[in-house]
Design goal:
With 195 residues, the chain is of the alpha+beta class. The chain is built from seven helices and four strands. It has a four-stranded antiparallel beta sheet. The protein is globular. It has a single domain, classed as NADH Oxidase (3-Layer(aba) Sandwich), CATH 3.40.109.
């Protein structure tokens, strides 16, 4: 599917993007981060709402504290829900050295203003743009959806400067991959109708 004659074409980037869970300690510079954010805001948006706003965190101490807090909140939720994925995750998260954000040097939280009909969808479209842009720059990304509840606690929102009318929707870690990025296979598209 990849055309070697068109390196870094949109289709090439889509097919080689994968979730990265191991990063070098190298920090992203502000120019790179601004480029990623600019790519994010060029996403499609319903009724031209553009409800997104961003929190960029590169303070490793703060990322570690957010990791510890998010692990705690997620483990409490997983115990309450009692599903297999949550049970397996709890075992992993019990390890005090496990970092919810995989020691990435940058955490970008895409927040949405209010929770209107299309706000979450718009923010996830922005997230995809950001991740594809990062991949095109040979950077790794991973969505840390399990952190959303913890990031939306009033205490964390206050610490991060997230106003009450915004909610954390898409936490994405970004950095320089420590090793080869691998992609996972996907199921064939399920077509419900083709008329």
């Amino acid at each position: 599917m990849n055309d070697p004659a068109i390196p870094n074409s949109a289709i090439d980037v889509i097919y080689r993007r994968g979730s990265v869970r191991s990063y070098t300690p190298q920090k992203l510079d502000s120019g790179t981060i601004h480029m990623l954010l600019d790519a994010a805001v060029r996403a499609p948006t319903a009724i031209h709402g553009e409800p997104w706003a961003f929190v960029v965190i590169q303070d490793t101490g703060l990322i570690k504290r957010l990791s510890d807090g998010s692990k705690k909140v997620f483990m409490e939720e997983a115990r309450r829900i009692h599903h297999d994925h949550g049970a397996r995750a709890v075992d992993t998260f019990k390890d005090p050295d496990f970092n919810f954000f995989y020691n990435a040097g940058t955490l970008i939280i895409i927040c949405g203003k209010s929770m209107g009909l299309f706000v979450a969808a718009d923010c996830w479209l922005a997230a995809e743009n950001l991740m594809l842009a990062a991949c095109s720059m040979n950077l790794g990304t991973c969505v840390i959806g399990s952190a959303v509840t913890g990031l939306n606690s009033p205490e964390v929102k206050a610490e991060l400067g997230i106003p009450a009318e915004y909610s954390a929707i898409a936490p994405i870690i970004v950095g320089v991959p420590d090793g080869e990025v691998t992609t996972t296979s996907r199921k064939e598209p399920r077509i419900l109708a083709w008329k």
